[in-house]
Structure to design on (331 residues):
């Protein structure tokens, strides 16, 4: 074991301009499906980091950094990520988040428990974070408070998955909760990812299109509404884009699919894709991820090939070239 790697923990204090930063806890996950049980690392930050590492491939013109927090006893997962070429800053925590995800035959349905919680993130711990895109891998309601959201919104385009703000831990069980600071907080959020259940809880509006419009009125610039096997909807600048799901070859494990979708979307937006183009590729990437447990380990070419099964060749060729029907988009 490389002891230098094992003991390395450092706070993100340098004013270093990074293209994409993800901030979130790496978790210990126990995943139970009708066919098997596995123990593995997880959390938005884990799925996001491995996914973007593989989508980038040999590209060295895009910088990515993960800021996470976990217990010293669980540093092996960080050491493994660093060996894969992922830049990781670690904020020490007393505990590592321990999730149980239990699925039935319908992978859209999940029961969840939390066996341990890590320390929350704060402005003081995050230092002078600076990036074009800052992605908050929120898992629980107290991971990032309002002051931290406000602080980070000044450091880059802020991307938030709402799931963590709508669930709290009581005992070892996860319960739905109200995001008390939502009106104030969403003023600072540029891109928000929600699913079909979360968007109704968040807005109180059962009509999904109306709910997206409400989120925009509250300040969100791009709404990503994921619908599992039914695809997704992107709402931006008053326009709705319905994105069909790409059909997977098989369904093995849906854990991390939403995180993978956001990862691919953010990367493609950074590369210059329109929201619709980015969402189509994100759909393809997520469909590949669901075919196995663990993070997405494919390539951008794999995603484009998957699109050929769902869209016309002309559409795929335009996406590969970074083009809309009538416009050139820089890559």
């Amino acid at each position: 074991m490389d002891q230098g790697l094992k003991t390395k923990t450092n706070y993100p204090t340098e004013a270093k301009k990074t293209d994409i930063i993800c901030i979130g806890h790496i978790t210990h996950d126990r995943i139970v499906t009708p066919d098997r049980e596995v123990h593995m690392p997880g959390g938005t930050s884990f799925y996001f980091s491995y996914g973007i590492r593989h989508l980038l491939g040999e590209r060295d013109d895009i910088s990515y950094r993960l800021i996470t927090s976990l217990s010293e006893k669980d540093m092996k997962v960080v050491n493994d990520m660093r060996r894969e070429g992922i830049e990781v800053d670690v904020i020490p925590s007393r505990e590592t988040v321990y999730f149980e995800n239990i699925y039935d035959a319908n992978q859209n349905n999940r029961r969840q428990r939390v066996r341990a919680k890590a320390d929350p993130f704060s402005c003081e711990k995050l230092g002078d974070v600076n990036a074009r895109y800052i992605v908050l891998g929120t898992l629980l309601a107290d991971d990032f408070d309002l002051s931290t959201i406000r602080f980070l919104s000044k450091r880059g385009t802020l991307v938030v998955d709402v799931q963590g703000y709508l669930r709290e831990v009581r005992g070892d069980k996860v319960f739905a909760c109200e995001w008390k600071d939502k009106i104030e907080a969403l003023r600072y959020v540029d891109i928000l990812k929600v699913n079909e259940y979360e968007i109704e809880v968040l807005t109180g509006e059962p009509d999904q299109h109306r709910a997206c419009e409400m989120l925009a009125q509250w300040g969100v610039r791009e709404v990503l509404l994921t619908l599992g096997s039914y695809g997704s909807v992107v709402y931006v600048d008053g326009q709705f884009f319905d994105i069909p799901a790409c059909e997977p070859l098989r369904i093995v494990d849906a854990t991390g699919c939403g995180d993978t979708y956001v990862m691919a979307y953010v990367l493609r937006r950074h590369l210059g894709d329109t929201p619709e183009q980015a969402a189509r590729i994100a759909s393809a990437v997520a469909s590949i991820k669901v075919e196995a447990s663990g993070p997405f380990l494919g390539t951008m070419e794999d995603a484009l090939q998957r699109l050929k099964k769902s869209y016309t060749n002309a559409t795929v060729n335009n996406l590969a070239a970074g083009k809309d029907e009538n416009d050139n988009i820089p890559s």
